[in-house]
Amino acid sequence: MKPSLKHRTLSGALLEAIRQGILSGSYVAGTQLRQDALAESFGVSRIPIREALFQLEAEGLVRISPQKGAVVSDLSRNEIDDVFELRILLEPRLLLASAPKLTEEDFQRLNDLHEDYIKAISENTVNDYGRLNAELHLAMYHRADMPRTQQIVASLLQTSDRYTRIQLSNAAAMQRAMEEHAELIHLCRSGRIDRAARFLAEHVAAVRDDLVNVLRIP
Asked: For the HTH gntR-type domain, which residue ranges apply (predicted)?
């Protein structure tokens, strides 16, 4: 039996609220997310809370164990390397498949997202950084006929949101991200797709390196 629309909407709203709490730092790494406390806070039963926590575990934001229940994940070097190495491997493949098919309308959408990204950074609306970054990347890949890879990359970008906010706390990293996004769009529009794919891999690797430096992780 399919869940009702009301139930799916409630579950999605709870998922987003708890996710934003983690990404914004309201729930710091190591915080125990007790189902009963969250249910009371949101005025719901524990069932949709449990569903949201399982989804957050799949995104890598929460770890669930029989002893401690759900705990906000630490920012570890192993996870950073895992997430970003997968992105370096998969995103250029998507770009190679998608970029030759991008239309004028697609490029207008990319330009609009880039402008929104610049505005979010200039206005310091931190909650929009990761979302706009993910939307811009996925907009570059949406013409690729590779649904499984696109789904994996979308999940990786969701996980990367937490890291993107930290990485963009560095002014130099913010400026470089804006410039590199503009260059990626330019390379795709000018038909230099192979160069764009190489540049994309370099861009994602630079984001990872910036993040490691900001966090001072050995």
From this structure: 8-75
